[in-house]
Design a protein that fits this description.
- The chain has 4 helices and 7 strands; from the N terminus they run H-H-E-E-E-H-E-E-E-E-H.
- The protein is an alpha+beta fold.
- It starts with a helix and ends in a 15-residue tail after the last helix.
């Protein structure tokens, strides 16, 4: 799990170092080039992070519309682009559809989300999400998804002496 938090820190550093003023994101040409560069860097980081099932960067709707950003999940031929949820079509307290975004925004710090099933994909995921700020301006949320089954299997495989076992607990 430490690899994931380190990878998010690297993604955050890149994402905020490329912007002098959050209002630059209002310019469509700048925003498009910025997100293309971010997607390339984030994918390279995700490919070198253990057990990544997906990665994303979503801009706050204040800078464009509710579907600006990217989301990639591991598919048969590597990372594949996924459809984006329109953040403006759901209430901010709708945990099922936009909880991953607003949980990070409300916490104002990185956090692990509870395990969940992603619609249309038959795997349980766990996500590490972080809000991005340029100065005091929220610019969006980044995150990495992990296959939760891999994590639970790894813990189940831990053997502690003859009768011991390991368990995974949430705070």
């Amino acid at each position: 799990l430490g690899d994931v938090s380190k990878s998010i820190s690297i993604m955050e550093h890149f994402a905020i170092s490329e912007i002098d003023d959050a209002n630059e994101l209002l310019n469509e040409e700048f925003r498009t080039a910025y997100l293309k560069n971010a997607q390339t860097i984030f994918q390279e980081i995700a490919q070198t992070t253990s057990n990544v099932a997906g990665f994303f960067f979503r801009l706050d709707p204040a800078f464009s519309n509710g579907t600006t950003g990217f989301y990639y999940m591991v598919g048969e031929s590597g990372f594949e682009s996924m459809p984006l949820t329109d953040l403006t079509k759901y209430a901010k307290d709708d945990k099922q559809n936009v909880g991953w975004y607003y949980s990070a925004v409300n916490a104002a710090k990185p956090l692990w989300l509870e395990p969940y099933f992603f619609p249309g994909v038959d795997i349980e995921l766990i996500s590490y999400v972080q809000p991005l700020y340029v100065g005091r301006n929220l610019v969006g949320v980044i995150g990495i998804d992990m296959n939760f089954g891999y994590l639970t299997k790894s813990i189940e495989d831990i053997s502690l002496y003859e009768a011991g076992y390991a368990a995974l607990l949430a705070k």
